[in-house]
Amino acid sequence: MEKTIEMKGVDLGMLFGPADAKLKLVEDAFASKIIVRGNIIKIDGDKKEVPVIHEVFHEMGSTLNRKGSLTQDDVKTLIRITAVQNGHESQQLDTVVHYGRKGGFPVELMDRMLILTQSEKMILFSPLALPGQGKLT
C-alpha cells in the first residue's frame, strides 16, 4: 500500500530535526519505506502499518504546533502510543498516560490524582505538590 501525506503549516526542519534524526526514529520503528521530498511524505509498505505511520506523522505535527518544539523522546513516545493504540504492538503503555504541552504525565502520579467533572469542564486535582507545576486548574 502507498500513501502520500502533505505536511502543511509545519516547519519540517523542526519536525524531522537535525540530520533527519526524528525521521530516522520513525523509519527504524517500522518496516515501511518512507520518502520525503519538500513537504510531501510518501509511505510505502504493509496496509496495516501505513495508516499507523501516517498517524505518527500527524501527531508529530500536532505536538510541534502545540508545544512549539519536538524532542526525540517526544517522537519515541508518539510512536509507541500510536502503535499500541492501533494494535501494531501488543505491549501495554506503562510510563505515560497523558501527553500535554509540557511533556508526558507519568503513570505513577496518576493513582494520586482525581478527575472531577464540573459543568462540562474537566478539572484535574492532585493532593501532591508537583514540582514546577504550580497551581493546577
Strand order of the largest sheet: 1-3-2
Query: How much helicity do the residues have?
Result: 25-40%
Task: Please give the radius of gyration in angstroms.
Answer: 17 Å
Point out poorly predicted stretches. Answer: 90-95, 107-123
* SSE string: EHHEEHHEEHEE
Can you tell me the CATH topology of the domain at 2-93?
Ribosomal Protein S8, Chain: A, domain 1
State the shape: globular
What is the CA-CA span between the terminal residues? 45 Å
CATH superfamily descriptor of the domain at 2-93: K Homology domain, type 1
Biggest sheet overview: 3 strands, antiparallel
**Tally of DSSP β-strands:** 7
The level-1 CATH class of the domain at 2-93: Alpha Beta
- What is the strand content? 15-25%
Class per helix and strand makeup: alpha+beta
* Average pLDDT over all residues: 76
Number of helices: 5
CATH architecture of the domain at 2-93: 2-Layer Sandwich
Topology:
Layout: E1 2-6, H1 12-16, H2 21-29, E2 33-37, E3 40-44, H3 49-67, H4 72-85, E4 96-100, E5 103-106, H5 107-110, E6 114-118, E7 121-125
Antiparallel strand pairs: 1-3, 2-3, 4-5, 6-7
Helix pairs in contact: 2-4, 3-4
Short description:
The protein is an alpha+beta fold. It contains five helices and seven strands. The chain has a domain of 92 residues: 2-Layer Sandwich (Ribosomal Protein S8, Chain: A, domain 1), CATH 3.30.1370.
